[in-house]
Design goal:
Glyco_hydro_17; 7-stranded mixed sheet; Spore Coat Polysaccharide Biosynthesis Protein SpsA, Chain A; 50% helix; hydrolase activity, hydrolyzing O-glycosyl compounds; alpha/beta; Nucleotide-diphossugar_trans; transferase; Beta-monoglucosyldiacylglycerol synthase
């Protein structure tokens, strides 16, 4: 049954994927392209040409283009007579093509005079294939000249030629300045419904209505269409989508109507013009019927298909999804059919999206800039896919496991068979009353053979450590010689140094080492319930979760409690399935011979606990985790301390991964299983994603600044690419909320509070990721206890970096919305990206302010349920 579901589910979803591709690419019949159209707008620029830099095509290249159009069009329309373009009338005559000759009118009067002089020279040669003259192209629309200035140019040219003379403007300019009609022999309108945001289904009717409107306004003038077309790529303009399919549909439909109505028209345009990107944005390059390689971009008579070769892309997406699933299904024996179906659905979804995005991007003309961006996007896209795979896998295993493969073994063991346990309590400058409370709980343990070693390292004030030393003597009088106190100053190695010192002082009879933090109050049955797991000789580590006892103090601590709980109730449980838990520095036990064999605690690492656990796994030992509370400590009192703690954890994770990279990648042979390697790499991927997200944020802000400073030259990022961070954010938030509700059994308020607290740490984790890669000298941050909550101003200062980022994103979004093209969909999507990217930074400010508001009650979040392990890996039996 397992193998059939592994095959059947992917096959069914593959069929659905192919069906979806087919549905989106159904052939649509459209009117055929005429055998010969009226005219083309003709600019024979090649990909390397740019008239702004006086880089024009050669005479031979122009003639090649005219030869390509020969027999398919009656006439071509030009825009300037500068440089080699002045030869077009002569070359076109040899190809049997008529020419509407254009003279460019711009904002420079001297340049206009030179252009008109060149125009006069060509007209004086009397080319018989010249049929019309255009003086200026959208010069009024661009506000390069006034109406009176343009009419003077028109009157001058009309005197120098017998050919009919006009100027070309969009339809609304003629209606706004009807006096122009008195200075032209015919009206030339541009009908480009894309720029007006008209959907393609309405575009032909809209263009015809505007043509009729102009014709009705000037009944005594012939009206010709100087430009009509649709872009094959670029930005979406309100309801108008720039796509190859829409270009095909619009032009074939319009031409069918134009031929029937007898219009004189020029299709915009013959060839794509990559140089126009600089002045018209991404869309400007894609108006041609032929691409820059002079190949037709679409079919002229056959049914129209959105992606002509969609079968290959569908097949590629299926193959990619199958490869991803082969990796995810390698160890899915305990996953239900729903879980496997979920994995398959998401993998097919991201594979299809990836193939579509890559296909879409490769349709762009590759310049050095787009190529570099493409490479960066490819690298980032691979990272996104890997991250989604890891998140999806955890999602599926958290919700749809049929059974837990590694339940925690609760055994009833006679007292005489229980091993001696040495409990190590490292302390540095801890409030004495706090540590005394911890020791009292240890004295109440229901376990026959144990000792407690308190190692106070480097505390300078005797008033801090001497009361603890005295209390240990008092406890020994009450319960026997179980407690030993050590004050060591100086002692190197931070917490790991203290633990190694304790290891050297441990009773030789002790077979198990247990570690708790100085603020933890343990339950009496902690050792009796968990130590028997060591009867399995392969088990080297037994871990209980970190839990906390001060969540009822205020709303901030209740939020932190909810945020912590997710890892211990979700991440650690799924890791335990593959013997890949992260060992913690409290509520942990380790077999003493194993600890000695691997060399003790690593004093170079500030997360010595997780690093030790990885070394133990590399030696082939097992670890067990039980998601049941056996001890509770104290949480950070302020947001600043909350950040310091998470920075230390994330920083240490990076240092550990760097130190063990050869083992994790299989370069150095160890006994690590594939599942262990997977969890130790994939488990920290969300933190690495925060690091890469910081780079993305810097790039996003830089791009936004460029958009504001150079609105004509810099457009928003490609819309399908810009949607990725929005989709990823939605995916992660959905996963977090659903798993909290189902696995943590959290309320909606608690799920929201946990999400807010987690988001607030994103920037801290990102900084830790880069800090861990760059340096290895971070000092150990002890998480302060019982600190005073900060004032309002201090709370803002604690989140100052995040606050500045949030302000920068909002400012960028606001300024971008002031652009003239703010109505464009890609602009609005990019603004949405900026707003979404600001949310983690805003969360940090909000959480910091909540931490300052000491009086906010914890009831706003609500108490978290007890961690009893029910429904996961074990049920704790009360008693023994």
């Amino acid at each position: 049954m397992r193998y059939s579901s592994n095959i059947l589910i992917p096959v069914l979803i593959a069929l659905l994927t192919v069906a979806a591709w087919a549905l989106l690419n159904r052939p649509a019949d459209e009117p055929p392209w005429p055998n010969r159209i009226q005219g083309f707008s003709f600019a024979p620029m090649r990909a390397h040409n740019d008239p702004a830099f006086k880089n024009f095509p050669t005479i031979e290249e122009i003639d090649e283009d005219l030869a390509l159009l020969q027999g398919t069009v009656h006439a071509v329309r030009t825009y300037t007579v500068e440089s080699t373009l002045a030869a077009i009338p002569r070359l076109a005559a040899a190809r049997g093509l008529n020419v509407t000759l254009g003279a460019w009118i711009g904002a420079d009067p001297d340049a206009n005079e030179i252009e008109l002089a060149r125009l006069g020279e060509i007209l004086s040669k009397g080319y018989r294939n010249l049929v019309r003259v255009m003086v200026g192209n959208e010069a009024i629309l661009r506000e390069d000249v006034s109406v009176s200035e343009l009419t003077q140019y028109l009157d001058r040219v009309r005197k120098m030629t017998w050919l009919p003379v006009s100027t070309a403007e969009p339809w609304h300019v003629w209606l706004k300045y009807p006096e122009l009609a008195d200075h032209v022999d015919f009206i030339t309108v541009h009908l480009l419904p894309y720029w007006e945001g008209v959907p393609v289904e309405q575009a032909v009717a809209y263009a015809v209505s505007r043509y009729d409107e102009v014709k009705a306004a000037f009944p005594n003038k012939e009206v010709i269409i100087g430009e009509v077309g649709w872009p094959s790529n670029g930005r979406r303009n309100r309801g108008a989508e720039a796509s190859l399919t829409n270009q095909t549909r619009f032009l074939r439909r319009f031409l069918a109507h134009a031929e029937q109505a007898g219009y004189v028209y020029y299709v915009m345009e013959a060839f794509d013009q990559t140089w126009k990107t600089r002045i018209e944005g991404a869309t400007g390059a894609y108006w041609g019927v032929y691409n820059t390689d002079r190949e037709p971009k679409f079919v002229f008579t056959q049914p129209v298909v959105r992606i002509p070769h969609w079968q290959e892309l569908a097949g590629l997406s299926v193959v990619m999804a199958i490869l991803l699933l082969v990796f995810l299904y390698r160890d899915s024996s305990s996953l239900s059919s729903k879980g496997k179906g979920f994995l398959a659905l998401v993998m097919y979804g991201i594979s299809t999206a990836a193939v579509w995005i890559v296909y879409d991007y490769t349709r762009l003309y590759m310049t050095p800039a787009t190529a570099i961006v493409g490479i960066l996007l490819l690298v980032g896209g691979v990272g996104v896919i890997v991250l989604i795979m890891a998140e999806t896998h955890e999602w599926a295993e958290a919700l749809w496991l049929r059974r837990w493969r590694r339940p925690f073994p609760l055994r009833a063991v006679p007292d005489e068979e229980l091993p001696v346990v040495s409990i190590h309590v490292p302390a540095y400058n801890e409030p004495p009353e706090l540590l005394i409370e911890t020791l009292d709980a240890l004295a109440a343990l229901d376990y026959p053979g144990y000792e407690v070693l308190v190692i106070d390292n480097n505390t300078k004030d005797p008033a801090v450590w001497q009361p603890v030393e005295a209390h240990c003597r008092h406890l020994n009088e009450a319960v026997g010689e179980r407690f030993r106190f050590f004050h060591v100053d100086p002692l190197a190695g931070y917490k790991a140094g203290a633990l190694n010192y304790a290891l050297r002082e441990t009773d030789p009879r002790a077979e198990v080492i247990a570690v708790i933090d100085a603020d933890y109050i343990v339950q009496p049955l902690w050792l009796r319930h968990l130590v028997p797991a060591f009867q399995d000789p392969e088990v080297a580590i037994v871990q209980a979760p970190q839990d906390y006892r001060d969540a009822d103090q205020n709303a901030f601590k209740a939020m932190c409690m909810a945020e912590y709980r997710g890892f211990f109730h979700i991440g650690m449980v799924t890791r335990n399935e593959r013997n890949a838990i992260i060992q913690h520095g409290t509520m942990t036990m380790i077999r003493r011979p194993t600890l000695d064999a691997v060399g003790g605690w690593a004093e170079w690492c500030i997360t010595e606990d997780a690093e030790l656990g990885l070394r133990v796994f590399e030696e082939g030992h097992k670890a067990l985790y039980i998601p049941c509370t056996y001890g509770r400590g104290l949480m950070p009192d302020t947001f600043a301390d909350f950040k310091k703690q998470r920075y230390r954890w994330a920083y240490g994770a990076v240092r550990t991964l760097k130190h063990h990279r050869h083992q994790l990648l299989g370069i150095r042979k160890t006994t690590l299983s594939a599942g262990q390697r997977y969890h130790f790499v994939a488990g920290w991927l969300p933190w690495f994603a925060d690091g890469f997200n910081l780079l993305f944020n810097f790039a996003a802000l830089a791009w936004s600044v460029a958009m504001v400073m150079f609105p004509l030259q810099v457009t928003p990022p490609y819309i399908t690419v810009a949607l990725v961070p929005l989709v990823l954010f939605g995916f992660k938030m959905s996963k977090s909320f659903l798993l909290y509700r189902r696995r943590v059994t959290a309320t909606l308020r608690q799920s929201f509070a946990a999400g807010l607290a987690g988001l607030a740490l994103s920037h801290t984790i990102a900084r830790a990721m880069f800090g861990g890669f760059v340096s290895g000298g971070l000092g150990f941050f002890r998480t302060p206890k019982l600190a005073q909550a900060p004032a309002f101003i201090r709370a803002l200062a604690d989140a100052r970096e995040e606050g500045l980022f949030a302000i920068a994103f909002w400012l960028a979004a606001g300024l971008i919305m002031l652009r003239d093209d703010a109505f464009m969909l890609d602009v609005r999507v990019w603004v949405a990206v900026l707003i979404v990217q600001s949310i983690p930074y805003l969360a940090a400010v909000v959480v910091s302010l909540i931490s300052a508001a000491k009086t906010l009650p914890a009831s706003l979040v609500g108490p978290m349920p007890e961690m009893t392990g029910a429904g996961s890996t074990a049920r704790v039996e009360q008693g023994h």
